[in-house]
Amino acid sequence: MTTTRFSRRLRLLASAGVAAALLAAAAPAHASSADIDTSASVSLTIHKFEQPATGTLGTNDGTKIANPGGTPLADVEFTVQKVTDVDLTTDTGWATASALTVADVYGSTATHTLGTGIVRTTDSAGEITLTSPAVGIGLYLVRETAPGTSSVVSPAVPFLVALPQPANGAWNYDVHVYPKNAVSRLTKTVDESKAHVIGDTLPWTITNDVSKAPAGTSISSYEISDTLESRLGYSSTTVSLVDGSTTSTLATPRDYTLTAPTVGTSGDVVVSLTASGLAKLNGVASTAKVIVEIDTTVLSIGDGTISNTATAYINDPQHAHGTSSTPTPSKWGALRVVKHVTGDSTKTLAGAVFDVYAVDPSTAGATAVVTGATTGANGSVQVAGLRTGDYWLVETTAPTGYQKLAQPVKITVAVGSTTSPNVADIADSPIPPFTLPLTGGSTGAAFTAAGGALVVLALGVVLVRRARRRA
């Protein structure tokens, strides 16, 4: 076969679905099918890497890339099948392969036959290596068939690869391929800055990459779901698309459908993009992000750790696999205030009234997050839920006969339940009773002298009245 004919066939293979990077632009005269060593062992190594946000893993010509710029993905399943009716040891076989597409060998329109699938999953290095006799000289269809536990959300485009590959005028029997993919980086955070007591708003933010699919494909379905646990009541949802410095608010039902529980109750919150929303996703950069904000209210604290997890299903309408966020906790505790007599904790006091502040009460504009917490007959009062952190107790009314605290008391609330609350012991001192001075002292003498003066004065008044009557 002439150099011109063989070069043309290689170019046709590249344009017909055999990955272009895996084929030489042209082959020297001596790299012909007649030169293939049919007794040689061949191998196919599939490398699965997370695609960099910008750039590529490197140039792949069928040889191993020395330092690919990506993170290996383990547990990704591939299925490799030989196109059994194409013989690459002959010119006829190469001529047939040069006109093939993936659709010709796989799917409802396939006109060629495939051998038994070889199913393997990538190891910790993101690799699968197939060697003789599992694979031999021939044309193979490679498909990514399951993401496993990896974050892959859009499988690599199926491709055809020839074993061996031409390389520097010879044949490369050790072929390496680097299929492209899209991955999901899903995170969930909670903003606790304004939540202090049960009933306060607790906002959750779910952030997920747009996860642009490989070239030639698109995002066909995009759903984010969040199951609010029983201690959270639903309030509202907003969805936005952030592309660089541009933020666009998506609207329902135009850009997405929203399934959510009744306000104040728990349940599933599901955001599913419509055709309009998908068009917007497919029109932005791969670095863009979808942000779903869900406002909730705290209904109870349970064991004190309220945790929530979001899941994204991208190009996965059947929910065969999803990418979940790391559980995000919001931490709470209960507080029990016990009021007792100074120096004797067994003598508890009813009727003490407290306000609770989340900042030092002397701070400008400080307002109480709990007011009027009053100790009962057992001398205690319990606040059912406070977010963990520092608080200040201000006694607004002391029990009858006792002195009110002059200064706020700072306390720290740790994670806990209503049955295992944080306890704050607060002591009050009795108001001192009025005591008469002891007799015999200088003060007693003064009282005696004052009493004598009053007797003399009273006697004078009597005498004056008698004198008036006589006159």
From TrEMBL:
Which keywords fit this entry according to its UniProt record?
Answer: Cell wall, Membrane, Peptidoglycan-anchor, Secreted, Signal, Transmembrane, Transmembrane helix
PROSITE patterns to which the protein is assigned, alphabetical: GRAM_POS_ANCHORING, TAT
Instruction: Note whether Membrane occurs among the keywords.
Output: yes
Question: Gene3D superfamilies of this UniProt entry?
Answer: 2.60.40.740, Immunoglobulins
Q: Which NCBIfam families match?
A: iso_D2_wall_anc, LPXTG_anchor, RrgB_K2N_iso_D2
Q: Where is the Gram-positive cocci surface proteins LPxTG domain?
A: 436-471
Source species taxonomy: Bacteria, Bacillati, Actinomycetota, Actinomycetes, Micrococcales
User: Any transmembrane segments, and where?
Assistant: 444-464
Superkingdom is Bacteria
Q: What is this protein called?
A: SpaH/EbpB family LPXTG-anchored major pilin
Question: Which residues belong to the signal peptide in this entry?
Answer: 1-31
* InterPro entries linked to this entry: Fim_isopep_form_D2_dom, FM1-like, GramPos_pilinD1_N, Ig-like_fold, LPXTG_anchor, SpaA_PFL_dom_1, TAT_signal
- Listed Pfam families: Gram_pos_anchor (PF00746), GramPos_pilinD1 (PF16555), SpaA (PF17802)
